[in-house]
Batch of 2 targets.
Target 1
Amino acid sequence: MEQGNVTIAPAQGKLGVLLPGMGAVSTTLIAGVELVKKGLGRPVGSLTQYGTIRLGKRTENNQPLIKDFVPLAGLDDLVFGGWDIFGDNGYEAALHAGVIEPERLKLVQEELEAITPLKAVFDQNYVRRLSGPHIKTGQNKYELAMQLMEDIEAFQDRTGVTRMVMPWCGSTEVFMEVDDVHKTLQAFEAGMKENHPAITPSMLYAYAAIMSNVPFANGAPNLTVDIPALQELASDRGVPICGKDFKTGQTLMKTIMAPGLKARMLGLSGWFSTNILGNRDGDVLHDPSSFRTKEQSKLSVLEYILQPELNEELYGDYEHQVHIHYYPPRGDNKEGWDNIDIFGWLDYPMQIKVNFLCRDSILAAPVALDLVLFMDLAHRSGMSGIQEWLSFYFKSPMCAPFLYPEHDLFIQLTKLKNTLRYLQGEEQITHLGLDYYQQP
Amino acid sequence: MEQGNVTIAPAQGKLGVLLPGMGAVSTTLIAGVELVKKGLGRPVGSLTQYGTIRLGKRTENNQPLIKDFVPLAGLDDLVFGGWDIFGDNGYEAALHAGVIEPERLKLVQEELEAITPLKAVFDQNYVRRLSGPHIKTGQNKYELAMQLMEDIEAFQDRTGVTRMVMPWCGSTEVFMEVDDVHKTLQAFEAGMKENHPAITPSMLYAYAAIMSNVPFANGAPNLTVDIPALQELASDRGVPICGKDFKTGQTLMKTIMAPGLKARMLGLSGWFSTNILGNRDGDVLHDPSSFRTKEQSKLSVLEYILQPELNEELYGDYEHQVHIHYYPPRGDNKEGWDNIDIFGWLDYPMQIKVNFLCRDSILAAPVALDLVLFMDLAHRSGMSGIQEWLSFYFKSPMCAPFLYPEHDLFIQLTKLKNTLRYLQGEEQITHLGLDYYQQP
Amino acid sequence: MEQGNVTIAPAQGKLGVLLPGMGAVSTTLIAGVELVKKGLGRPVGSLTQYGTIRLGKRTENNQPLIKDFVPLAGLDDLVFGGWDIFGDNGYEAALHAGVIEPERLKLVQEELEAITPLKAVFDQNYVRRLSGPHIKTGQNKYELAMQLMEDIEAFQDRTGVTRMVMPWCGSTEVFMEVDDVHKTLQAFEAGMKENHPAITPSMLYAYAAIMSNVPFANGAPNLTVDIPALQELASDRGVPICGKDFKTGQTLMKTIMAPGLKARMLGLSGWFSTNILGNRDGDVLHDPSSFRTKEQSKLSVLEYILQPELNEELYGDYEHQVHIHYYPPRGDNKEGWDNIDIFGWLDYPMQIKVNFLCRDSILAAPVALDLVLFMDLAHRSGMSGIQEWLSFYFKSPMCAPFLYPEHDLFIQLTKLKNTLRYLQGEEQITHLGLDYYQQP
Amino acid sequence: MEQGNVTIAPAQGKLGVLLPGMGAVSTTLIAGVELVKKGLGRPVGSLTQYGTIRLGKRTENNQPLIKDFVPLAGLDDLVFGGWDIFGDNGYEAALHAGVIEPERLKLVQEELEAITPLKAVFDQNYVRRLSGPHIKTGQNKYELAMQLMEDIEAFQDRTGVTRMVMPWCGSTEVFMEVDDVHKTLQAFEAGMKENHPAITPSMLYAYAAIMSNVPFANGAPNLTVDIPALQELASDRGVPICGKDFKTGQTLMKTIMAPGLKARMLGLSGWFSTNILGNRDGDVLHDPSSFRTKEQSKLSVLEYILQPELNEELYGDYEHQVHIHYYPPRGDNKEGWDNIDIFGWLDYPMQIKVNFLCRDSILAAPVALDLVLFMDLAHRSGMSGIQEWLSFYFKSPMCAPFLYPEHDLFIQLTKLKNTLRYLQGEEQITHLGLDYYQQP
């Protein structure tokens, strides 16, 4: 099928969605999609389902839905599966997550009960505050990865899906930096066999996915596919990867506000962010080593948006703090409070306070859905390796090693939409628009 | 001077800044510029002074200052003058405005005292809560306009400036809609002679400016140059005009937040905005007829950003309220409180509360400065009539009648920067960036 | 029964609760009590149900529940009835009010359906934004009052209750001041017969209640029993009355915060209060004449707490504003935002912002319950006329004409508890406590 | 002088104020008092200077100023001295503290420069993030205490003051619990000679004060006089002591709000408090061992106010967190954000958010002033040992060991005022007030 610049294979057959971690985000995604299929809910927050894209000039008034513009899989074609450290089926897990009310879950009880997680690859050394009984055993990490690949193959055989995508929805692992064992595929595969401590469970999932020709999206701040070995493997095998850390809640708000302040060249003296949340994620982040992973992901955002190296006077010396507190009364209803100290004309100080009463999984589920559909589109379009055009969805967007990441949500959206226009051979939008007026 | 696509006359000689209304914004602008000239303050919040512009690819690392990229007038070349309904000189007026502390104003006392406002064209029928003694008299509105033109000419003779710009910094007038008398220049000029009630003082200033070859920027929500007669006059005489209503405070925040929510396709059920402020502006807006003018300007913002016609399900039915309260304890320190009711995945409700402790004139002064410098650039570049590329600075951006305005701050910024790139013959930035990666 | 200083008749038999207005507050009260009776809910927010009272010295550790200390009616003894302008039964009305979820209401559907409102006395001249079909007709206001008295008698006959209480839970009427017709019983009764416009429907209910020996509690800011004619009638007939305007939400918070600031002698320069709510109450208050009634009730609070006449320097010149906005997205979930501008040592300014995400009827229902039980206690204790000791529950507490009202929530609570101690012959608590230490 | 129940010696001569720690609070106190003396500032926030006290019945309208009712020292009689780890004089220290603007400090420069701190007793083991050069040396802690006593004596000789008070305004020490060495005077004095590690610098100051007949008020959360040895010493020697931890900022707000929620029997599920501040105090509290001391003081507040043992259902299971973050952009302008999760009728959840933009030292200075004046009054009235009636000023009020402390700000105020009434032989106020009405 020739469309625009690129040949995109059609979205024929079913699309498997393989979820490592069947917690709040995964079950909210699955239950939501099943409710939507039945007309009992709306997939609000999803760009693939609601977004439009302007084509041509403003006067042409041509703004189709994105899903009518590029050939995406339909929600009816999604088939879910996954792994978890608890054996609860999807219904039990969703009840336990406590995001969607029990009465509403009952409407898709059958569909959810049909999803039984496979045994997870898990090691408490990497997620200290969790433990569970539903865990794979094996001689070494390589063998565990092989088991995951067998799971994937069996899933495909069982369900008859034609393609699959794996969005990581598991927990935040302890902080980890690139090690020699991550640098080449050879070293990595040898490391798995030797149970090298720098190889984490999430890496085994990613390795298994790529080896199985399954695009991988990294929803947590873990290192996972941010290592040369797996990035090269993905390029070589023609598999798209992207990440990392779903951008929701406070960081989403930060990547909305910061570009606004920067646009107007208002100076920043401090940004204090605190969060309260009471779900499993909050509990995991109570562990300092997991928190450090998250914190790195959250802190870098401002640096890239504000470009202190270009605006030393305005952004060269600000205090940025991010705190996360496990506060059980809130359950999944995360709340962020930001205090932003800015300065303007003649250095006069001003303050902005943002209080976001959000819902963690409600914001994350449509992100996961969009990534599933766009990663499948990328795969069918012949794109492979890092998908920078999906930066829009991530707190720490992956990009080529010689580039800096774009954190500005609005640049990210422009990038995403212009990529879609490119795929379909449409003209890039620059918002210049001088041709509407007398030319100078 | 051939530069890029367009011939831009050099910024030689002094640039006159003619200010109708010498209140808080004007005096904060003037005092600020004088302090900056002496190295006693920084023009924070000004894109022309601090902004950078990326040229070429990310890897080229070429991001000059905007003021090094396009030939703008320097701050040392600005010469201020203006009109006011009080005869206080600039120093007295600045003290009265209470924005900058007295100790700091003393540092530029001499410069400020040198600025004595001319008698204003004023009529209390259009601004009911103000009155002052320093007012022109004349047979009819046309004669008043002639007096303004004489003032402008005399200013140029006295100061020797080579060019001038007039940014309206006066009060909000009563609500007014386009009338027959506004439709042609002929009708308008006849109307002035007949003292037609639909011709407001601000229109006389704009008429005088355009007739005197002085670009006009409308900083208030008044109708002023939003009428065919003056728009055609500006086009015919090659004079740039732009407007309207400086985008500061709560509306600035709204045009930052709303595009962020829209980007993520989060639904909106309500947006409640309240403001407290205690300066002259707050007092004027206490009058319902002036408030209505302001309210129109503030309410339309969301409609254009959210495009309910394209996203009926998400944005087709929200409650939007804007309230402004005159609350003297605050003085110029305006404070906004926004409560935003959004909904996400499966329609779950969430809330965002934004509390902005801002300073009205501190945010407006750099906007006025940028408009002075960019309008002068446009003039020297041969651009005339409506300058849509300056939408970035306005609550209700002017655009060609067959277009819808762009309210999204980030689209506005892209438009502004791509216009500058166009003027200098640089490539448009699309943020596509697929060429950094393996091509699909 | 001799108890302490006062003879209190025992709480034998059933207690009728007569509700003028079966809207959100009434149905939340009834449904709540029925749920509590079944063990399906808790009457949180009720001092009569949860409050304790310290007796004797701290070292005695004697703090019984209030309901164990004074002889109150039990919840099982309450029998509900009422009037409304709609004929919906209690179940339908509760569903319509939208405070308690439908699933929960189903658990007491039978009990609620059994309550059918009688036709109301209503006149749209006094509540402009409401109208309904279920309305009494009569020759004149006196005749309507007679019909109410007949309703009361019939209710008692039908249900066999031994005593009754009438807490007004109807709407806010238009603003009204004391008129000659209100000054004596004779004038008042003549006025009813002549349909005097200064006699409002709520006064007819109050008159009917007092004539029927039923204590009356005024939950709205209406004038109602704040008139000499009805106050004397209540005294003469030995019937307790109290009011006015249930203290919930923002005003509750204000009477908590203001005494705290006053305690520390922190000065006040401004208090800006805004409210958003979306229920019937919000709609009614959208009418300026009803809002004025409410505003008077809300504004006076600070004057009495801060005593500007005693503290001219700190409280002699502050700006106090109260705004209420009908904002449908919120339904019954009222939200208040307060900005408080204070000043301290050497006049340095500080700010407090309070954002209260409350629920109107959820806060009002236990207030209504407590008043029912305490008014019945007062009646059985032989107390009559104005019950100042119940000021704790009201925005505009009634008191003897030669006194100033106490608005400080903590003085009000002390008064309430010391009254209970007095009724039972217990020692007054002064918190002096010097006897625990060496005496000076 | 016979007055009321108690003989109070007159406030003749000068009163010395001995300040251990000449940081932000001390210098704000001193500069403020000097400004007030000159009529250049107002001592807002001070109950002794602005508070009134009602005497007799409401109808008597007798509400004198507290300072006219009890014989307090006047501000003109205060003479300041102190110790610090830096040798800066009062003017330099005040400039460094950055609370009061330099221009204003200049107005009392001479008075402040005249105050040179004595060398401090200091040991970094107890305050880890501070160090300074202006420190006493000695053989052991006993010898250091002797040096302090000599300092006190020399101060009195030099200034001719007739009485002195010592309010501790130094830093928060590491967390410490009562040890055997604290239990008797004998053990304590032996411990000083042996340099026992459980004896902290603040204890040496307190010991020196009591031995010198100087009342001691503990403004920090340190253990200091909360030990039997010093409490007995104070009683034996007839010296008043009180503490601990000046109640300002967020905890002040908490002791205002919590009694309000408790009054209405609203349940509590969580209270999350976070603070940002950027002064020396914030820096010291960045050390976990100092923070623990502060946290203990802050956390206990709710327990005592809410009495979970009496109200298990409403207050038996809430999450209470207090966080303090050193955030330099704020300087002395502390900011608190509280999120309070409450529940009402039928357990419906509601939220209160309080954002307090306060100023640490501006709130603390009048507290220190009041304590100086009231402790001197207590001393002259023959009161000794723990002064529970001053609980009003403290986060962790001291009380007799067999009592529980009162944390409710309003009970504390009642206690304070009834104590003053007692001292002057006035009737206790109970707010019963039934005598205004017909008696039941």
Target 2
Amino acid sequence: MKKNVKFLIRYDGTRYFGWEHQPNTDMTIQGKLENVLSRMAGLPEGETVTVIGAGRTDAGVHARGMVANAILDTEMSAEEIRAYMEQYLPEDITVAEVKFCAERFHSRFKAIGKQYCYTCWIGEEKPVFERRFVTVLPKVPDIDRMREAAAYLEGTHDFKAFCGNPRMKKSTVRFIKSIEIRRSGNHLRFYYQGNGFLQHMVRILTGTLLEVGYGNMAPEDIPAVLESLDRQQAGPTMPPQGLTLLHVDY
Amino acid sequence: MKKNVKFLIRYDGTRYFGWEHQPNTDMTIQGKLENVLSRMAGLPEGETVTVIGAGRTDAGVHARGMVANAILDTEMSAEEIRAYMEQYLPEDITVAEVKFCAERFHSRFKAIGKQYCYTCWIGEEKPVFERRFVTVLPKVPDIDRMREAAAYLEGTHDFKAFCGNPRMKKSTVRFIKSIEIRRSGNHLRFYYQGNGFLQHMVRILTGTLLEVGYGNMAPEDIPAVLESLDRQQAGPTMPPQGLTLLHVDY
């Protein structure tokens, strides 16, 4: 019987070329999931199950709450599917939940919001235990200045200046519900909540906030950066390893 | 000028053959530290600085608070030494502190206590983000039973049954000040505090407590295991990756 199956997936993205299929490599999260599910379904050579993800994460980006779904023709229970996947997926991808869901559920189209965290490391010691999941900062930024700048980014704006894809044809208008910046010991975390994010957007937002934190830009410069719609006016794209998709809202 | 220099060191032991020098490999923590310090001291080919560690950690074991010392002939400040070491040590070894100390300080002989943590993972999900630092348990042990068993292990005993070295010639009497077992989410942590630990002792203690937790042994069996002085009577040696040296007391 055909069932629409929903997955909650977590992964350490260090070894992968991102979520989405790439030519000439099977080292993508989507590819690993599809391989396991195609094997489970006993599909003939050359046929594969299609797994739809809530969004694409870039190479090196992690997820604690990626949501995906797939149409499976199976008699297995949700728990049997989960146990099978856990057994055959590599050690850096885990399936936290499997649920049968309504036929109309689509993990990408039905998503109404996403939460990301960008984690930086501050300190003279190297982050030996977390080095795959943080970006080391060369100096300590001013958090109050960054919070002032973040306030200008919240709300609905055209984020074209914060989009990593210069050939983006579709709307670059997005709604950011909140940006929270928290320091805890050696960690400086940037939490982003919004209805959707453009390519590299969270990494460029973080790079721009850090420019403010370092004194290279003023918080009051942010509105002009937004209005410019010019990628060159925003800060640098931060490296992928500090970024984690925390949650997808439906 | 010759100075006795004390180091506080943290490392992810995954890639290493343990603390101590091994023939035919430079992948030991001691070896990496000695290489960097010998280079810093500008010693001639073949001569090396000797680094004394508070204890030996096994292959795959981690440390958040290893203490070591070395006699260095240097004009550098403590902070300059730390910065130099940080720069040249690999990404999985960090020097958190460097201090000049009294000539009589010896990181092994002056140590009066050590604290270790053994971390297990309970849950159907794989520990994708922490897989190098935890041991996955096949089932959930009974914590109250393990605490009862742990109480028999506290105090001063001959721990020969819990020693991984069958040719141990010296005293196997040790004092365990406390064993604490705490569950937090998917983590089950065993904290050990004592005046010193035999080879593999923390891993065998944990393996034995888990045998009690699984119902394969009774808490009341522990005194007989201790009295037997027989390694075969204790539980299995748990794998190294769950073990971390937390602190050395002086």
